[in-house]
Design goal:
The chain is of the alpha/beta class. It is 33% helix and 18% strand. It has two domains: 185 residues, HUPs (Rossmann fold); 81 residues, HUPs (Rossmann fold, 3-Layer(aba) Sandwich). The chain is built from nine helices and 13 strands. The two termini are 36 Å apart.
Amino acid sequence: MKNIHYRGRFAPSPSGALHFGSLVAALGSYLRARHLGGQWLVRIEDIDPPREVPGAADDILRTLEAFGLHWDGAVVYQSQCLANYQAQIDTWLAQGHAYYCQCSRQQIRTMGGIYDGRCQSQHKQHGAIRWHNDQGCQQFNDQLQGHVATDHAFAQEDFIIRRSDGLYAYQLAVVMDDITAGITEVVRGADLLEATVRQISLYQALDAKVPDWLHLPLACQQPGSKLSKQNHATPVDKQHPHAAFSAALAFLGQTPVTMTGNIGDMLAEAVAQFDLEAIPKQKEILLC
């Protein structure tokens, strides 16, 4: 069944080269979008300069191209959207829906690990900015993982939307950008499963349509330790993409494709036979 209104995306951070875990997320989101006849967008989430690696954004894009993962439209860079985030924060501050907080991590640990909202009534003028979470979404349905429920206190917490160093928080930026792009389904790794309730709360506060969610299993070296750029995961070989492509397909439980040597033909076959039900309904999978 084709869905011309479907819009998916892949949104990597430029903190290093694309590794196998990122390839799984990119391929999974691409196959889902193309199998449904929809669009697949790419956004570079470059709003945390201290973690970014020079040249990584371009390298990620070249790697996607090497694997045949061609996107629709122009690549969006979050660093070009900062004024949008600040405008929304200013609106919330003026309305009393956001406030400054100067509590340290140590102080929050003494609160039991969940911030208790104490700064809201203190009218501070600097520090991190927290959104007053009056939505408190606690559960949702995931297209792969099924019903997901989170801890009540976590779901109700007033969370940070701009850090004390002035950098914008992921939760706000990703929601605002997905709304702007008209994303209808978010396909990504299961490490963001719990955080989804906070993003749904922001959608509701912004009076925006909440997308569908599909969280793929994480590729892990050991339980609870996903492949990541921070732990120096090996980059995929964009000069010889066929082996990693086939491995990512297998990781997603998909039927093997004909090894023609042409990555475009292999990808087209994978799109045609994509089966959501075949993806393992796990939060993580250990690599052998």
